[in-house]
Write a structure and sequence with these properties.
This protein is an all-alpha fold and 213 residues long. The chain is 85% helix and 0% strand. It contains seven helices and no strands. The longest helix has 72 residues. The relative contact order is 0.20.
Length: 213
């Protein structure tokens, strides 16, 4: 394929897989009590961690998975469980990950920036798999640079959208956020179920096939 076609695939696939529709309400609700500066820091750290993780898996994903004997299907199952847990809390318009009394705002921001924002919501099984596959398709140095540039651009867009979501917090108010959280929680739970069974199905089929031999 041409460089233009490859760049288009990189941008559209990662933008779709990151699923900002599911990410925004999580970020909005978990950072609702933060200052603008703290929210800015959380969004920046989540996107930078995600970018670094996707780069690592794109360049060394196959080696990492083989070294630890990990399959992408196992990653999908774990991601589905975490997604379901987050979605269930959203469905009740709450989050179980509440800042403890001895935890500073910075520590809390660091925690949620890593999980669930960076992993598995931005850098999830779908994005990781996509990065590994696209890196295999990038047969030249130029195409690898397109992949790196595309990933960086997508993370920049994600960062901007996360920051813009704070304006929705003010516009929607507390009741509006709770209603949106419940609706989006249902969607996140459906995504979680899809992730879980997408990972479970190949494993079960392999077990059945092995038992039949």
């Amino acid at each position: 394929m041409s460089a233009y076609e490859f760049a288009l695939i990189v941008l559209t696939s990662f933008f779709t897989l990151i699923n900002l529709l599911a990410l925004m309400p999580v970020f909005m609700s978990m950072t609702a009590n933060m200052s603008h500066k703290q929210r800015h820091y959380t969004a920046l750290k989540a996107t930078l961690i995600s970018l670094a993780m996707l780069m690592v898996f794109a360049f060394g994903g196959q080696f990492i998975f083989q070294f630890f004997s990990i399959s992408i299907d196992s990653l999908r199952i774990v991601g589905g469980v975490i997604f379901f847990y987050v979605g269930f809390d959203m469905l009740q318009a709450r989050f179980s990950r509440i800042k403890s009394s001895g935890e500073t705002q910075t520590q809390f921001s660091n925690d949620i920036a890593i999980t669930p924002l960076a992993i598995p919501m931005i850098c999830g099984p779908g994005s990781i798999t996509n990065g590994i596959v696209l890196m295999e398709d990038a047969t030249s140095f130029g195409y690898k640079m397109i992949l790196i540039g595309g990933l960086t651009l997508i993370m920049l867009i994600t960062y901007i959208i996360l920051l813009s979501s704070s304006k929705l917090v003010k516009l929607m108010g507390d009741m509006g956020i709770k209603v949106m959280m419940r609706l989006m929680g249902l969607i996140v739970m459906v995504i979680a179920v899809e992730f879980f069974f997408a990972g479970l199905k190949p494993i079960v089929l392999d077990i059945i096939e092995a038992a039949g031999k």
